[in-house]
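Submission sheet (multi-component)
Chains listed below:
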Amino acid sequence: MGKHVVCKVSELPPGERKIVTLERRSIGIFNIENSYYALKNVCPHYKAPLCKGVVTGMTLPSKPKEFNWGREGEILRCPWHGWEFDIKTGKSIFDPHKCFVKSYEVTVEEESESVETFEVTVELGAVVVHI
Amino acid sequence: MTQNQAVKLENKNRKRTGIIDCDVHVSPFDNDEIKKYMKQPFRDAFRFWGRGIFDNPFTEVRPDAKPPTGGPIGSDPEFLREQLIDSYGTEHAILHPWIYADYYADPDLKAAICSAYNDWLNDTWLSKYNHDGVFKASIVISHQDPSLAVKEIERWAGHPHFVQVLADAGARAPFGQRHYWPIYEACQRHGLPFAYHPGSDGLGSNTPFTPGFPTHFIEWGTTLVCGFISHLVSLLTEGVFERYPGLKVVSLEGGSAWLPAILWRLDSHYKSFRFEVPWVKKLPSLYIRDHVRFGSQPLEKPDDDKHLLYFLEMMDAENIMMFTSDYPHYDTDHPREMFPRNIPEQMKNKILYENAREFYRF
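Outcome: structure written.
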C-alpha cells in the first residue's frame, strides 16, 4: 500500500495512457485534459485487460432516435465485449452501481530529487498513483 | 503407418489438458493468400465483402488479439498459440475461417470461395503450423447447391485434421428440408458432423430470420437465434435423424438458453400433431442427446448464478454442450471465467472437454 511514482508528466500527455504494474497489480493511468485517473486493468466481466481498450466518447442518454455524442476521451471500452466504463470513476455506463472497476487516486507531485538545478515546471512533475 | 494412423497414435499419446475448444477463428495474413487458390472469373469476383449492413459496428475483433507482427487477428500461428492455446491450456482447437461466402448469390462463386479457404487451411494451419496436431478444422461448404457441397466434402473426407463440415446458418430454407439431404448423406457416409455457425444470417442472398430487417446490430445479434431455432425444429420434424441415423449436428454460437423452452413447446405440439410427421418416431426432444451438440459461447448468463445452473441442467448441458471460446472475436468466452463457481465438477469437465473428446473421437 503506498505511493508510486509512475512517470513524468511529460511522458503521459493528454489523451494518452500508460499501463504499469504496481504491487503486482496491473493498472492503467489515463490523462484526460491534464487530469489523471487510474483504473485496475481487469474487467469485472471476464478479467480481460480492460485498460488496453479503446478510449472514446459515448452516445449520451437521449430520446428515441436522437443521437447526442459526448464525453469524448472519457470513456474506456473493454477490448473484449466492448463494455463502456467512465474513466473518471471506474463505473460502467450500463449499470454504474453494480458494475464498476476499481479506481485509484492519482496526484501530480514535484519531483523532490533533481539532479541539476533546472527551473521546476509542471513538465518536470511526477505522476503518482496511490494504492 | 498411414497418416491417419499416425494422427491416432499422436492423439493417444497427447497430454490431456482438460480443454477442447470447438470454435476458434483464423484468418489469412492477406487476401492474396486465398485468391491464389481461386481460378477466374471467381478470383476477381470475390471482394471479401464481409456481412454488409450488419458488420459489427464497434469491433469484430478483440483488439488485444491483434498480432504484434501486424496481420489481422487470428493470422499469426505463434501469437495464437501463445494467447489462446498455451494460456488456456487447450488440447485441440477446431478452426473456422470467417468468410461469409453465402452472402453472395452465385452458387458457383460460393463453392469456389469455400474451396479456396479449405485449400488454404490445409496448406497452413493444418500442416505447416500444426507440428503437434493441436489444430483441427471444418470443411467449409456453401449449402445453396448441395451437389457442389458434396463434391467439396469428398475432396477432404478422410483428412486427419478436417473433423467436420461447416455451413453458414444464413440460408434460404430451414436445414431439415430435403434440398439439403445429399449433404447429410455425405456427412453420414464419412462420419463427419454437420456444424452451422452465424455468418450472413438474413443477409445477402439469404432469407431474413425476422419479420423484415431489424434496424440495429444489437437486434440482429440478439435475434439471430430465431434462425437457429428454425433450423433445429426443421431437422427434428423433417425426420433427418431417422433418415440419417448416423448424422451428428453441431449448433455453434446460436445460443442455448432457448433450448429447453423450444423443446417443451415442440414436444407439446408433437402430442397433437404427430400425424403430420409420422416419420418422427419419438418425442422430438429425445433425438437431441444422440444427434445434436451445442457450442457454449456466447453463454446467456442471468444475474443470479443459481439460475444459470438451472438452465444448464434443464438443457442437459452436461451431455450436449461443448466449450467454444470464439477467439479472437469480441464476444469471446473464457473457460475459467464463464461458469458459476458452484457448477458441479463433472458437468464442467464434460462441457470443457469430455463431450468434445467423445464426439470427435480425439
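Remark: The mean pLDDT of chain A is 90.
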